[in-house]
Amino acid sequence: MSVAKTPLSLYVNGQNTGPIDVPDGLMMLDFLNEYLNLTGTRLGCGIGVCHACTVIVDLPDGRSEEMRTCVASAHSFAGKSIRTIEAHARRDAHGRLTLSPVQQAFIEHFAFQCGYCTSGFVNGATVLIERLRREPVAREDVERTIMDALDPHICRCTGYVRYYEAVRELIVTTPGLVKG
Question: How far is residue 178's CA from residue 42's CA, in Å, rounded to a whole number?
Answer without folding.
Answer: 32
